[in-house]
Amino acid sequence: MANSIQTLSLPVLGMTCAGCASSVQSILSAQEGVVSADVNYATQQVKVAYSSDLVQPIQFKKALQDLGYDILLDEVSGKAEQIEIQQNNFKDLKRRTAGAALLTLPVVVIGMFMMDLPYANYIMLAFTAPVLFLFGRNFFINAFRQARHSRANMDSLVALSTGIAFVFSLFNTFYPEFWHSKGIHPHVYYEASAVVIVFIMLGKLLEENAKSNTSSAIKKLIGLQPATVWLISEKGEAEVPISAVQVGDLLLVRAGDKIAVDGKIEEGSSYVDESMLSGEAVPVSKIAGDQVFSGTINQQGSFRFRAQKVGHETLLARIIAQVQEAQGSKAPVQQLVDKVAGIFVPVVLFIAVCTLGAWLLFGGTYKLSQGLLAMVTVLVIACPCALGLATPTAIMVGIGKGAANGMLIKDAEALEAGYKVDVVVLDKTGTITTGEPVVSDFEWLPGLENEREELAGILLAMEQSSAHPLSAAIINYLKPLVSKSVKISEFESITGYGVNCFFGKRKFKAGNLKLITEGKIAIAPALRIREEAFYAAAKTVIYFADDTRVLALIAIADPVKEGSAIAVKELQKKGIEVYMLTGDNAFTAAAIAAEVGILNCKAEVLPGEKAAFIKELQQQKKVVAMIGDGINDSQALAQSDLSIAMGKGSDIAIDVASVTLLSSDLRQVARAIELSKATVRTIRQNLFWAFIYNLIGIPLAAGILYPFNGFLLNPMIAGGAMALSSVSVVSNSLRLKLKSL
Fold first, then answer.
1. What angle separates helix 120-130 from helix 190-211, to the nearest 10 degrees?
2. Strand, helix or coil at 462?
3. Distances (CA, A) of 61 to 24, 40, 84
4. Residue 584 contacts by C-beta under 8 Å, 6 or more apart in sequence?
């Protein structure tokens, strides 16, 4: 049987709380042949290990559909289909919430301030019925499905409390004389029913909004892979789907193309943008024998390469898989509320039934009417409105506070993690540095003062004709210095070395040290001193020369951002360890680390190694925040406990990260962590008060004081108390706006 064990990761539909996730997991685990089932409510996924000899996935689908859930059996397209369904559900929920709120407003006004209005009860009934049974129908549908299988969740409590209050009010509207004959005034509770529905729908709307963005990063990573590729065979060149590519196929890559699979170049040369791997802004020179990777982008030139890894084996596919795994391993703050609700709901139902039973057994003359009133009051006052709002309102205010300060916080998970962060890991390029190479120094050979403008014009013309990635930095530097254009001839680009040209009969060169060394071109002692200083500062040096001597040295650097050093010091003052991980060489990395005051630095680190390093820190019980800006950082960002992206970074990094710094200023990191701590404290305070409210309110609603002083809580007061509890939670959340960062 061991050989027949298979594992699938499938999207789940219809889960609305952690109790639902528990139900799905228990249903699948109970199926014959299932070895294990692990449901992740945050990602709406289930990972099932099963024996294909005993059970097939279609049986999972049938079992879940009977309880009102569903799974999508296609691992490849299922995620995209799930995203589309979630987006449609979110739009529908938004429309229903708006409609319910619009109808609830007049009910609240009449119920609280205009009870003596003619036909008030009938007007409120007309407005409330569609709120419950049209806009809020899903609560009742889900509660019914749960009840069929002897289960209950938050939907069950919402449906029972609002449904009983509505039916009780309906009876009192049409048969008020029943209560009049017993000396009791027949109150109606339409406004309580409608308000509960609106508040809970608002909470679900906030939750669905967060869920709708969880997969956008994966979609964009998948988008890095082209749909088709040029295949070279004996019949010539043909454009074929990427799924048709096999190991060993010869493929053609043209200028501007995305590279489809991993392989080795056999013919041609070019520059390839590998920022998704290394995070470095400068494209890499590629010649025959060099490796190329799926998802990277060809710049100038074309080449042919032999496919070595395809499909799920490519580096890009492995990055996607690791991002999915890291995202799926996390639990958001909202799950705490749902887990508590899984216990809270059946307890409240039990208390409500016991309340009615106690009144029937020990009540006085009006035991039936008073028992019914007490039971309804328990269900109304125990409605999990404050509990449901405790987390989303704090998150909403926290997110607004962050946005006002240039920090986009995407989910509650970031707020929870920020409370405990004790290690910060920084990428270098685009995070600590600007990520945009610039000319930092331009050193002329002494004695060329009268020729400099003409020579600068020649170099400018050469760089304008060049396809080298660093040319833009030199062009931007020289343009303001050159007053008239220069015409050059016989321009030649030598891949891996530099460029040549003629100006008149004189030959000029611009390129790296290899171009100068192999051309046996002399470097004056004065320039040698500056050359050593540039290399010591980890700068890239471009040589400009004629046939006999070097005329100028151009030092190009990726400058450190203003404020990076201050940001590192602020974090260290808070007792947070700071690490720098970069794909750049050790020499450059050490120089940048020393400049900003980072003591722990790792260089030449690949994306998977960054994620592995963070995992090592987590195994040491560290709570890790990762700050990056490139596609290459996406794995590490997803693995970290708190992921922060630079606003000017790649879309992938921003989508994977749970916090985005719009200004790309590292000084915002400490503020983001402080905001996270303040927000999670508020959430905990809200949950505390929500529970205290129920601990006090439910016994009062059940009539615990009646035997002592005759006090019986009126359902109308219970409805007001329920609303007050929500107001108190929201008010506490709003205090976050006053927090200084």
1. 20
2. helix
3. 11, 17, 19
4. 278, 280, 428, 429, 603, 604
Which tokens sit at 733? 């959340």
Tell whether the model's pLDDT for residue 216 goes beyond 70: no
Give the SS3 label for residue 505.
coil
Q: Could you tell me the pLDDT band of residue 680, with boundaries at 50, 70 and 90? A: confident
From the list 672, 684, 661, 667, the residue with the least C-alpha distance to 732 is 684
- 181 CB-contact burial (10 Å; exposed 0-12 / middle 13-18 / buried 19+): exposed
Mean pLDDT over 538-560 rounds to 90
Q: Which residues of 116-143 are buried (b: 16+ CB within 10 A; e: fewer)?
A: eeeebbebbbebbbebbeebbebbbebb
SS3 (DSSP) at 415: helix
In the chain the domains, ranked by start, together with CATH numbers, are 2-75 (3.30.70.100), 226-312 (2.70.150.10), 406-434+561-675 (3.40.50.1000), 438-557 (3.40.1110.10)
- DSSP letters spanning 607-673: HHHHHHHHHHHHHTT--EEEEE-SGGGHHHHHHSSEEEEETTS-HHHHHH-SEEETT--TTHHHHHH
**Please, what is the average pLDDT of the chain?**
81
Tell me what pLDDT residue 350 has: 87
DSSP-derived letter for residue 32 is T
**CA angle (307, 309, 314) in 5-degree steps:** 125
Task: Count Cβ atoms below 10 Å from residue 91 Cβ, excluding itself.
Answer: 12
Integer Cα distance of 576 and 569 in angstroms: 10
How far apart CA 33 and CA 52 sit, in angstroms, is: 8
Q: What is the DSSP string of 402-413?
A: HHHTTEEE--HH
The structure tokens listed for 24 are: 């799905």
The contacts of residue 415 (CB under 8 Å, 6+ apart) are 333, 394, 395, 398, 409, 676, 679, 680, 683
Retrieve residue 346's tokens: 């059946």
Under DSSP, the state recorded for 549 is: B
Q: Is 427 a catalytic residue?
A: yes
Are 418 and 573 in contact by the 8 Å Cβ rule? The answer is no
Kind and range of the H or E run holding 440: strand 438-444
Nearest to 557 by CA among 427, 432, 434, 431: 434
| Integer angstrom CA distances of residue 740 from 396, 401, 671, 732 | 17, 10, 9, 16
Question: Cα(720)–Cα(192) distance, rounded to whole angstroms?
Answer: 8
204: tokens are: 């679900």
Number of other residues whose CB lies within 10 A of the CB of residue 702: 24
Going by DSSP bridges, is the β-strand pair 291-292/407-409 parallel, antiparallel, or unpaired? Answer: unpaired
Residue 227 — φ and ψ, nearest 5°? -80, -30
Mean pLDDT of 180-184: 71
Is the four-CA dihedral 514, 520, 521, 525 of positive or negative sign? positive
Pick the closest to residue 629 from 592, 666, 654 (CA basis).
Answer: 654
Collapsing DSSP to helix, strand or coil, 570 comes out as helix
More confident residue, 477 or 72: 477
Nearest to 65 by CA among 19, 28, 16, 30: 28
d(CA 133, CA 576): 53
Of 427, 584, 655, 665, catalytic: 427
Query: 569: pLDDT confidence band, cut at 50, 70 and 90?
Result: very high
Task: Name the residue among 63, 62, 67, 91 with its Cα closest to residue 15.
Answer: 67
What does R_g of the chain's alpha carbons equal in angstroms? 33
Inter-axis angle of helices 190-211 and 715-734, nearest 10: 30
- The Cα–Cα gap between 155 and 342 comes to 11
